[in-house]
Amino acid sequence: MVCTSPSSLAEASKRRMKHQLLVNVKSHFPTQYSQATYFGKLRNLLDSMSISQREVFKKLPWGHFAKIPEFQLSGQIVHMLLLWLVRQQPVDKLWFSIRGKIFKFMFKDFCEIINLSAYTIKPTFVKKNEKGSVANIFFKGNKRVSYQELKDAIEAVNPKKRIDTLAFVKLTSLFVVDGVLLTRDHDTKINADHFDWVEDFENFQKYPCALESYNLMVSNLKSLIRGQPEKFEAVLAKNPGYKNAKFTVWSLPHVLQGLGV
Fold first, then answer.
1. Own/partner long-range contacts of 9-17 (Cβ < 8 Å, ≥24 apart)
2. How far apart are CA 227 and CA 23, in angstroms?
3. Residues 199-217: pLDDT tens digits?
4. Which of 21, 108, 143, 163 could form a disulfide with 192 if both were Cys (CB 3.0 to 4.6 A apart)?
5. DSSP 3-state assignment of 260?
């Protein structure tokens, strides 16, 4: 018989608590995932640019997005990862218990994968003259614009038509920030302040959109899985024909898929 000291028992208890999962994985529940981000549309939208506009865009902090091939969201991998989330973890991080080890996914990891600067402080934006602003040129001054309307405005531009290069690059940059990094449900309007901020374009490039995108992803993923499978079972009890819990993921949870391999 092996005698275990109280300190060893305490350590073992701590390890168990550390690896305690947020969801009871024994209670499987079927899911269906869809993505909110328009990332897959970005390369097509760049076709709306003239050569000079495309060259300017490529030099921006997010210009490399134009070269990234479209990659599909794997709902199976994301779901598996969510089932590995541990119960006790910081609000702004994702900790997974995988094969007996704790994997910590943090903001710096997110930035390294999408290759954006880890800005954390929002710059002070300077109010600019709105006469030649993106809102005036493309939306007749309206700043209550949806993601789809933003996308449609870019697609409507004829590459052969003369249009201010910087104005169009600003419009496309808005699409990257709001339509790719910060996309929520598609009926959500983009942040109206961004129309003002993008006019101070030098500072807009220092806007901590990566941090906001990361925080959006973390909070969204945790909210989807928290309270499951009880939530699914409650709906199923009222509606026996209910087949899948349907989740829409925000931001770019695609970056996590390497952990699920």
1. 17/88
2. 8
3. 999 999 999 999 999 999 9
4. 143
5. helix
Tell me how far apart the alpha carbons of residues 93 and 191 are, in angstroms, rounded to a whole number.
25
Rounded Cα gap, residues 159 and 141, in angstroms: 23
Burial of 221 (0-12, 13-18, 19+ CB in 10 A): buried
Query: Taking the model in full, what pTM does it have?
Result: 0.88
Q: What is the DSSP string of 55-87?
A: HHHHTSTTGGGGGSPP----HHHHHHHHHTBBS
Query: Given the structure tokens 């903001």, which residue do they identify?
Result: 107
| Amino acid symbol at 122 | K
Spatial distance between the Cα atoms of 211 and 151, rounded to a whole number of angstroms: 23
Q: Tell me the per-residue pLDDT of 75-123, one tens digit each, with 9 for 90 and over.
A: 999 999 999 999 999 999 999 998 889 999 999 999 999 999 999 999 9
CA 43, 121, 131, 179 dihedral sign is: positive
What are residue 88's phi and psi, to 5 degrees? Answer: -100, 110
**Residue for token digits 């495309």?**
54
Q: Report the run of H or E that residue 98 belongs to, with start and end.
A: strand 94-98
Question: Residue 1, Cβ neighbours under 10 Å: how many?
Answer: 2
101-105 and 94-98 beta bridge pairing: antiparallel
Q: What tokens does 257 get?
A: 């898929």
Torsion, CA 53, CA 66, CA 213, CA 198, rounded to 10: 0
Domain ranges across the chain: 30-260
Of 86, 88, 90, the residue nearest 103 (C-alpha): 86
Q: Note the residue count of the chain.
A: 261
